[in-house]
Amino acid sequence: MSNEIIKKNQIMFSCHKFKPGNLYVSSIKNKVDDSICIYDNEIRKSSQNVHIIPKEEKVLKSLNTIIGNLKELTIHQLVEHLNCEKIDTEEDFIKKKQEKDNKCYIWDGNNGKISIPSECADTLKEYLEKVRLYMYIPLMINGNKYELNFMRFFIEDNRIHCILSCPQFDRCIGTYVNENGICYPHTPDSEKGQLKNIISVTETHFGMNNYCYNPGIEGLCIEKLSAEDGSAYFKDYACLLAEEFIEFINENESINVKNKEKYNLFLDGAKIPFYDYNQNEVTKKILDVSLGNYHLAPKNSYLKDCVAKAIFNNLVAIEDHIKKKNKKILYENEGIIFNKGQHVLRKSTTYEQIYSYIRIQTEKYYYDLMGFRMGKDDDSCISCKLKSYQFICADKNTFKGNTQKFKSWQVYPGSLEDGVETLPSMKNPCKNFPDAIVFYHNPKTKFISKNDLNKEEWNKSIEEIVKEFLDFIKVNEGA
């Protein structure tokens, strides 16, 4: 069966009751008067893809160029923020479905071309070969495929409608998002905040793992592109698209974490239950996909608060000791400058104070001191030991603003034991900066919580961890 042009009131066989709908540009306020609907069942017989394209060649050419440029800008943002590995061919990209390594793979292929119906190849070939309106960005993590589409499909009155240059995201377990049934929403509006419900309804009531989602982003305003600040607007729109897509991936990966044995949380030598951010929070997740940070905290609220207080109190004392140890101190907006760099206690603003840390900045490196210790074994099991110190040394080239060009889990040590570091073979996680090192180090100083009976012992432990941290910096600075 070849691809075919579907008439306005013709029911698409594989799509059951659905008929072709309207075509819009940017929003449902901008309807395209004359369009063609092509149902794709030639090569990809199970895809059940529908394409609606404008007949007016001027509109077609303009949108082709705009969407092509937008795709290029957005891919650049995603690669930079997610540290994605670019895949050259669709065949190699599909192979990455077998990888369960938490890495992001992105296919920067020339996709979105419309297949030509055989019965009208002669008359439409030249026209249709110009169509690239249905370009998209596919990204793979742990065998789950996520797609950023530059068009938004929706169902209304048993018709499939499409808004060009208006984004839609989807998660696809399989080859095509619609292969087990049409996944399009029944609204053109934003579905922000409804993702958990969409997943639940799709899996529970329809028995499908694939779904589409309308992000809280309006369609690209074509008129603004010709304004004086059109170029800046275009770049900002691409950044917004990338940020929303990363948030979509982050939430999906968190919601779909089913194997809880992948995590171990330790406190005072005992394994304890961890708090499930994925189920109980909206903005907090066990895994922050964009940075690669894992967050494991005690399930018991009182215990969680006690641990957070103990860690934060020690960090405050550590910072105070560093100030006293270095006499040449200048106070600036960025923090406290000493010698070559600066040190500052950075409070966790999104999570509990468990995740606060000290950062010292020198000419070339960032050095962090944390009150919790992370590790990853050969089976990719993530472990966290609370009230236990850990250092990190990271080349400044691996950071850009508040984002980092590596995933933290990539360089977690293989053990929580004292003296263990990231393996030498793992200390260069950034492909664009192959000489830039990033590694964790587990110091030997024991974490001691302050109480009324151990003031002298506690003070000594603070002095020891400060000395060990500064010595760690001196060694890596070559001092």
Word description of this protein:
The protein is of the alpha+beta class. It has helices spanning 57-82, 90-95, 121-128, 195-205, 230-255, 277-280, 301-325, 455-477, and strands spanning 4-6, 19-25, 27-31, 35-40, 49-54, 85-87, 104-107, 136-141, 144-156, 159-172, 211-213, 263-267, 270-271, 287-288, 293-294, 329-332, 335-338, 341-346, 357-361, 365-376, 382-395, 399-400, 403-404, 438-441. α1 (57-82) crosses α5 (230-255) and α7 crosses α8 (455-477). The longest helix has 26 residues, at 57-82. The radius of gyration is 26 Å and the shape is elongated.
Blueprint of the fold:
Layout: E1 4-6, E2 19-25, E3 27-31, E4 35-40, E5 49-54, H1 57-82, E6 85-87, H2 90-95, E7 104-107, H3 121-128, E8 136-141, E9 144-156, E10 159-172, H4 195-205, E11 211-213, H5 230-255, E12 263-267, E13 270-271, H6 277-280, E14 287-288, E15 293-294, H7 301-325, E16 329-332, E17 335-338, E18 341-346, E19 357-361, E20 365-376, E21 382-395, E22 399-400, E23 403-404, E24 438-441, H8 455-477
Parallel strand pairs: 2-10, 6-7, 12-21
Antiparallel strand pairs: 1-4, 2-3, 4-5, 7-8, 8-9, 9-10, 10-11, 12-13, 14-15, 16-17, 17-18, 18-19, 19-20, 20-21, 21-24, 22-23
Helix pairs in contact: 1-5, 7-8
